[in-house]
């Protein structure tokens, strides 16, 4: 562990992952099983967590894949 005030845990709970993506926990589980979302890490018999870096990379990919914002042209008119 570190005493650094900016320490961010490497793992995030399914609840945190759902909040970060605005998707439900069951949907994230289904997407992970289908290979559409990062696979969770099994921590115990009934406990999983997602790797924060992988979830953030998945979010970044979705942002990068969106179409260009065409609203700027219509606002200028």
Radius of gyration: 16 Å
Low-confidence spans: pLDDT under 50, at least 5 residues? none
| Main β sheet profile | 3 strands, antiparallel
Average pLDDT reading = 89
The CA-CA distance between the termini, in Å, is: 55 Å
Q: SSE string, helix = H, strand = E? A: EHHEEHH
- The number of helices is 4
Number of strands: 3
Report the portion of residues in β strands. 5-15%
- Across the major sheet, the strand order is 1-3-2
List the quaternary state of the chains: single chain
Gross morphology: globular
Helices and strands: which structural class?
alpha+beta
Helix content: 40-55%
Explain what this protein looks like in three dimensions.
The protein has about 80 residues and is an alpha+beta fold. The protein is built from four helices and three strands; from the N terminus they run βααββαα. The chain has a three-stranded antiparallel β-sheet with strand order 1-3-2. It is globular.
Describe the structure concisely.
The protein has 4 helices and 3 strands, in the order E-H-H-E-E-H-H. It is of the alpha+beta class and about 80 residues long.
Features:
single chain, 77 residues, alpha+beta, 4 helices, globular
SSE layout and pairing:
Elements: E1 11-12, H1 14-21, H2 25-33, E2 41-44, E3 47-51, H3 52-65, H4 71-76
Antiparallel strand pairs: 1-3, 2-3
């Amino acid at each position: 562990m570190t005493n650094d005030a900016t320490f961010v845990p490497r793992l995030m709970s399914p609840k945190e992952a759902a909040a970060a993506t605005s998707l439900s926990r069951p949907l994230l589980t289904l997407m992970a099983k289908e290979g559409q979302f990062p696979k969770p890490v099994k921590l115990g018999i009934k406990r999983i967590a997602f790797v924060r870096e992988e979830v953030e990379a998945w979010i970044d990919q979705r942002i990068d894949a969106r179409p260009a914002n065409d609203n700027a042209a219509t606002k200028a008119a």
